[in-house]
Amino acid sequence: MAKSKRWGKPCADKRNWSEYNEHLVIRGEFYLSLDFLAKWDSELLKMNTDKRGRRYQYPLLFIQWIAAIHVIFSLPYRQMEGFLRKLSQFVNKDLGADYTTLFRRISAFELPLIDTIEQSRGDVIVAIDSTGIKVTNRGEWMREKWRIHRGWIKVHAVIDRKTKEILALEITDESVQDEATCIPLVDAARDALPSGHICEILGDGAYDRNEIFNDLEKREITSTIKVRSNASRQSHGSPYRAECVRERQDFGYEKWSKDHNYGSRWAIEGVFSAMKRIFGETVRATSTAGMFHEIKLKFSLYNALINC
Length: 308
What we know:
The protein is of the alpha/beta class.
């Protein structure tokens, strides 16, 4: 069977490769950034002021750094203790936290997504989608042979199409459909951009629902959601969706896609791919709460990486 010719022009690579390569090199510095040492004493003093009970021995900036080492390099807690013990000899500071302390502090550590987002921006075009994360990478053959279903974790995200930053995130199990999280994610993304405005949203056919179109119209957000090719041109509860359907059918998919730059929706697929290449496709935690916490931390650290 002859392969059909792909429509459209090849994507032109407009990247400044010298600048792009330098940015990737700087990411390597992020892994060994010891800036927390300069603020060690002042941060500990602030954390322990008016604190009841046992005093903190390690500041939050240090926990953030070692949490990044833990999730990026999949370093077990006992090996992290040895790593810090050896590093202490080079920085003239006792960093040798025991593995139990590291586990407790990292498990309780929160890096809010909003703290990793650059705030200076105007109108923002966002893309929305979801991806699956495996709960384990072990026993694939046994699950296939005995039909054991372990399920997976579903990550729903909204990103800035231009900067590739993750603006909002929701983590669920596999049973939650994409359309159920769309509007809450859009609202969360708007709250994360006090100095910007979401003017357009890009989404695939999973978000082709009357309720979503109606809510986007109320929020004055342009919909670039891929509607079904055979969708009815009548309103049926959503005049705005009917308008979008007629536009696609009248102009054809190729022209509609080009006019709305729908192909840039693939930016979110690129973010998911980069996330899995950097942090892996599975989680190390075993409890559900631990898995959700690990994924949130990874996505927040991804924003920190691309903005470093």
